[in-house]
Amino acid sequence: MTESLFIGLMSGTSADGIDAVLTTHDGHKVKVIASDHQLLAPSLRQEILAFRQPGENELHRAATLDSLLADEYAKSVHSLLLTARVSPADIVAIGQHGQTLRHYPDGETPYTVQVGDPNRLAELTGITVVADFRRRDIAAGGQGAPLVPAFHRAQFATPGVATAIVNIGGIANVSAVSTEGSVTGWDTGPGNTLMDAWIARHQDAAFDQAGAWAATGTVIPALLEGLLETPYFGRAAPKSTGPEAFHLEWLGTFLSGDESSADVQRTLLELTVESIAHALKTSSPATVRICGGGANNALLMARLTERLSPANVTTTEAVGIPPSSVEAAAFAWLAAQTTAGDPGNVPAVTGALAERVLGGIYSGR
Known about the structure:
Order of helices and strands: EEEHHEEEHEHHEEEHHHHHEHEHHE
Number of domains: 2
Number of helices: 13
Largest sheet: 6 strands, mixed
Strand content: 15-25%
Distance between the termini: 25 Å
Number of strands: 13
Shape: globular
CATH topology of the largest domain: Nucleotidyltransferase, domain 5
CATH architecture of the largest domain: 2-Layer Sandwich
Oligomer: single chain
Helix content: 25-40%
């Protein structure tokens, strides 16, 4: 089969930048052949983070952000094409997740909001865009997330080997593939979002490089125990969450104010480790592949390796895709699924009534 070219775009809950990948797709798996990362301007990042709590004039601000992010996505696409020396005419489609501002999949009227106008992106690039993936799954009764387990199964699972793929972005999610090939998955809770927010408040840094600051602290057992009693961690899947649920105001309800800030950071890292370990307890994977920004946190990786023993814990680099490229590659794959008329969700993961072709298609020509 002739391989087709797709682009995947991802700007995750950390809102630090845009990952763009150029992939080939042979009808089953993708191969990343070029990548690009563009940092978001601090003012734009702050505006995204501000939506985690209700604020004034939200409709105008969201509409403005919708256009501004489309411009940034277009810059990422042009930079990627220049690096790869590929023409826009050679690309079948861009898979664009968009920037999530709010995600409320439960309640009487569930909804999810992503911005980064796909109409504007198609106009600026001349390439067909596939976007708005989550809402079709929610319309079918699902959580709208996580959407990557189908890709994880296709890309990383080995027949006969129980495998877990753990994406540690702002929010962490797992995909558990059984020895028979069935897949389940859900959001485990905070990945980097609380650690990033805490170090930004106390060290004026965007993230904890390699977990170095957390390594200077000590876990506070009572704090960790209290955090883990949060009902979300005990809920059965399917489930999904976001930084609107796990944020510094929420964390503050567990703090006395006398704690060492480094000890809190170390405890937040352990919260990520424990919530992931709890999520994988019943699937008992023999192999665990880590991706997302958390794969760059040496202390986090060391603790996961210890906590998940005897499983073999590596990053996805070991099977061909750099950890920072996995989510963007997943949306390139989802764009290929949509343009082929094939489903992209897994009902056992999201809780949707059935498989659905996800997203809308916005013609670039």
